[in-house]
Amino acid sequence: MLKKFEKRLDREMRFHLDAATQAYIAEGLPPEEARRRALLDFGALELAKDEMRDLHPFRWMEQIGRALRYAGRQLRKSPAFTVTVLLTLALCIGANTAIFSIVDQVFLRALPYPDPNRLMMLARSYHKGNLSDTALGQSFRTWEPVRDHARLVDSAVYSGGSGGVNLFVNNHVEYVQKQEVGAGFFRVLGIQPLIGREFTPQEDVPGGPPLAVLSYGLWRRIFNGDPGAVGLSIDLAGASYTIVGIMPKTFQTDAPQAQIWTPLRPSAGGKGSRWNYQILARLKPGVNAAEANAQLASISQSIAARFHIPDGVSIALKAIPLQTGRTLDVRTKVKLMWAAAGLVLLIGCMNIAGILLARSVTRSREIATRLALGGARRAVIGQLLTESILLALLGGGLGFLLAYFILQGMNTISTAQFTSCRAAST
Amino acid sequence: MARHEREQPEAELLQGTLDLLILKVLALEPLHGYGIAQRLKQITRDALQIRQGSLYPALYRLEKRGYLKATWKTVAGRDAKFYALTKAGERQLEHESAGWERLSAVVRLVLETAK
Q: Which residues form the domain of B37?
């Protein structure tokens, strides 16, 4: 586009000069002299051309391109400076991006369920004097009174985390993660099965029928998304389970690897005798957290009587937001890491500012020369800005890559950790 | 960009005037750059020194603002860029002429009163 513009510009100027030359020749001047006079009349040709080029709508693109190329040359000329700044930027931005991705997940991102603000998790809080502690694990003895008396919330009990089992169905073998959930678990989360239903309270009892709800992905893989899969049997760890429901595609629980859900069948024995359960609660319409907590506190008195609690210690059930509950054990750590990453960023910025300042001192000669040769202040400032922007973009890109790898690494580590936890719990 | 810094306020005034003159000349008939220069020279009887080099940037500027429309035509076997007034250009000419009339009337008034 610019080439065409140049060509037309040239042609127009040439037409003018030729016409003016012809006019002088017609007056009787020799061609050489005529040309000279024509040029003289015109004035500064290149200056005029430059002024016209400035009016071209895509002129800025060309100018930015040139500024970037020049900035690139400048940066290549001082590799030590460039590498230092780029690495500092990459580390600062990478660390902060990675941490912020975690902060976003832990504190900011709303849970993927309808009305997530009304979703709660029940916690046990212990008090002695001004000491207190909170734990999320529940047992059958805390679930029973909640189920029977906590009328202000819609609650469900489930087992946090998942365990691996071997799945056999029509010659298909797969090692999948299974999570045990009580009746009403999906209803409380607010996600209905895509096909079929969830477990009823009558089924979710010790000795109840062996049933299973599948994830969308597993259903697609094994049954090719055939709706007729509901009602069929699958074999889990040697026992036969009947499929009653398929969950929607995006559904996830707090055990993100879980692909199959079976009834928890809560009981006072076995798992239910320890703190292996978790209780999910949704505030009923028109109920606020304070009201629900008041009711839970009154239930807590009957709970306290069921446990051997040291003198002077009080126990109370408390509803905390599910978002908080799910991330309870990492919240403080994440905040600390965030602060640390912020400090690193601050230090990095100061470092880079210092380095840039030092560089500008060494470049004062170059800048003085440019100004003396008629370089406009705006052009010099623009050039310095372009260099900084180029550095920032390159550093940001590297930081982004670094963040990606950090997060990948963290994922691998945490998945490994969860798997070992699950293995330990089953 | 250095050019702008070296420009004096009088040059700015002259530039505005040049735009008006160009619009006026083109209101009669479409012309190419050289033609405009010649016409200006004739009308002003050489009294006004217009560097031809400053004519073209002014033409480009007016074209960019939509006051002029350019077309390439062949003149004596050569391609020449002809400029013509657009509707917006006509309005601008009226606007600028009125402005100029007002300004010169005021200047004249001041000069005559101060005599």
A: 2-113
pTM of this prediction exceeds 0.80: no
B3: tokens are: 């050019």
Q: Shortest CA distance to A248 belongs to which of A268, A276, A218, A273?
A: A218
Question: Is the CB of B81 less than 8 angstroms away from the CB of A375?
Answer: no
Chain A CB within 8 Å of residue B80 CB: yes
Q: Indicate the pLDDT class of residue B14, thresholds 50, 70 and 90.
A: low
| B77-97 average pLDDT score | 91
pLDDT, greater one: A381 or A346: A346
- Half-sphere exposure for B71 (CA within 13 Å, toward CB): 8
Tokens of B39: 């016409």
User: pLDDT value at position A67?
Assistant: 84
Give the closest of A18, A43, A376 to B52, CB-based: A43
- Positive or negative: CA dihedral A24, A30, A35, A37: negative
State whether A378 and B80 contact (CB < 8 Å): no
Whether the per-residue pLDDT at A424 is higher than 50: the answer is no
Q: Where are the domains positioned within chain A?
A: 2-43, 63-107+330-425, 116-326
Average pLDDT rounded to a whole number, residues A330-342: 90
- Cα A58–chain centre separation: 37
Whichever domain contains B53, its CATH number is: 1.10.10.10
Kindly list the distances between the CA atom of residue A263 and the CA atoms of A219, A233, A239, A401, A424, in Å, as whole numbers in the listed order: 18, 15, 14, 43, 20
Number of domains in chain B: 1
Q: What pLDDT shows up at residue B11?
A: 40
Q: Which amino acid would we find at residue A259? A: Q
Res A329: pLDDT: 78
Q: Which of A152-156, A157-161, A345-349 has the lowest mean pLDDT?
A: A157-161
Residue of A347, A399, A360, A403 whose CA lies nearest to A81:
A360
Q: Where are the alpha helices (DSSP H) in A104-231?
A: 140-149, 185-189, 216-223
Instruction: Identify whether the C-beta of residue A85 lies closer than 8 Å to the C-beta of residue A355.
Output: yes
B70 touches chain A (CB under 8 A): no
B60 part of contact set with chain A, CB < 8 Å: yes
- The bridge status of strand A163-169 relative to strand A172-181 is antiparallel
pLDDT at B49 over 70: no
